[in-house]
UniProtKB/TrEMBL annotation:
One of its GO terms (cellular component) is cytosol. InterPro entries: CheY-like_superfamily, OmpR/PhoB-type_DNA-bd, Sig_transdc_resp-reg_receiver, WalR-like, WH-like_DNA-bd_sf. This is DNA-binding response regulator. It comes from Lichenibacterium ramalinae. Pfam families: Response_reg, Trans_reg_C. Residues 129-228 form the OmpR/PhoB-type domain.
Length: 228
């Protein structure tokens, strides 16, 4: 199945942080970690590379807006949703101007926060800043690149990028060959499943340790599935 999206919750309210973490963790698409202060969060966002950060304002040891500005200045591009303790309009304005993607006022309904999280993740996945984990690679769709842990860059063609991105978004579901042909090539009567299979073969040469025994891009039930 697809790798769970990492969610970092930064809030000094222990009860709220624990409750929110428990609610988010009920959804298998997410993996959650928490921090009670900006100091605790520093290593988590620098080394843990979360896919989305939920950041409370205020924090006990640092101005929340300053933390967002620092994160953006150091290249953190994933979505940041801030939690305002006052609900004041100036909090929302300040959060967005600092570089946050959204600001939610406490108290809030979890269903609404969850919907915002998913919306921002979808938007980020389609942006030029998106970096997705595929096997042992960082997949950068906008740049048509796969980057290894050692920084080796592998170029992808436009079609290879489109196939990989579509399979990533569909994971862990199997995508039928006809669906992939339609989504990647459109309604082109001249394109056959052989064309798709050729592109899958070339992708496996790039992302699999042993292309003959695929573990990341697998054939399953009349289509393909990505174990991201």
């Amino acid at each position: 199945m697809a790798q769970a999206r990492k969610i970092l919750i930064v809030d000094d309210d222990d009860d709220l942080r624990a409750t929110l973490a428990e609610q988010i963790a009920c959804h298998a698409e997410f993996a959650v970690c928490g921090a009670a202060s900006a100091g605790e969060a520093d290593a988590a966002w620098r080394d843990g590379h979360p896919d989305l950060v939920i950041l409370a304002m205020p924090l006990p040891d640092r101005d929340s807006m300053a933390m967002v500005r620092l994160m953006r200045a150091e290249g953190f591009s994933s979505p940041i949703i801030m939690l305002s303790g006052t609900g004041a309009e100036e909090d929302v304005v300040s959060a967005l101007e600092a570089g946050a993607n959204d600001c939610v006022s406490k108290p809030f309904r979890f269903a609404g926060l969850l919907a915002r999280m998913r919306a921002h993740l979808r938007q980020h996945d389609g942006s030029e800043d998106a970096s997705l984990q595929v096997g042992g690679f960082t997949f950068k769709p906008s740049a048509k690149l796969l980057v290894t842990a050692k920084g080796l860059r592998l170029r992808l063609t436009e079609k290879e990028t489109a196939i990989l991105r579509f399979l990533y978004r569909a994971a862990p579901q199997v995508v039928g060959r006809d669906v992939l042909l339609r989504e990647v090539w459109g309604y082109n009567a001249g394109i056959t499943t052989h064309t798709l299979e050729t592109h899958i073969y070339r992708l496996r040469q790039k992302i699999e340790d042993d292309p003959a025994h695929a573990r990341v891009l697998v054939t399953d039930a009349g289509g393909y599935r990505l174990n991201a």
